[in-house]
Design goal:
alpha+beta, 160 residues, 5 helices, 5-stranded antiparallel beta sheet
């Protein structure tokens, strides 16, 4: 009974997380037009050779990005969303561990590192902390066959 309750709670949490994320424009041609109007570099591929994907859009500008894929089935979209979540979670965990490692090196070997070496570690630490911060702005979601991930601003820009 406890396992069933835990599973049910996990499913409810998953749906809550996915349903709360903002959704991009579902018509990818319109999304492309809206994003280009906001100075994004946009690629829309609606003639993909992959039978599992009917269309995909990639958009970037200086600070924002968005990736949208329309899959051939709802089941495939669900699976690909789960894969996307797992990949992002793994990247976040890797960055966190790298930050811990750098901090340990800087603390443990402080007396043995040259000034230049210490500066390199400080720069690397700053870069990794910025990368971790960037992930806080990334959201992902699914609606039917459509899966997306990107920054909230890019998602918003796809609709205007």
């Amino acid at each position: 009974m406890k396992k069933l309750l835990a599973l049910l709670l996990a499913v409810v949490c998953l749906f809550a997380c996915v349903s709360c994320t903002p959704a991009p424009k579902k018509d990818l041609a319109e999304a492309k037009s809206n994003l280009e109007a906001k100075n994004y570099v946009v690629f829309l591929d609606d003639t993909t050779d992959d039978p599992t994907v009917s269309e995909k859009l990639t958009a970037t500008n200086v600070n924002e990005s968005l990736y949208i894929v329309r899959y051939a089935s709802n089941k495939l979209a669900k699976l690909e969303l789960r894969r996307t979540e797992a990949k992002i979670d793994a990247q976040i965990e890797d960055i966190k561990l790298e930050i811990k490692s750098i901090k340990h090196i800087m603390n443990k070997f402080d007396d043995e590192l040259t000034t230049d070496e210490m500066d390199k570690y400080k720069e690397k630490l700053r870069e990794r902390e910025e990368a971790l911060e960037d992930f806080k702005n990334v959201v992902f979601g699914r609606s039917g066959k459509l899966v997306w991930y990107g920054t909230k601003q890019a998602i918003k820009d796809s609709k205007k």
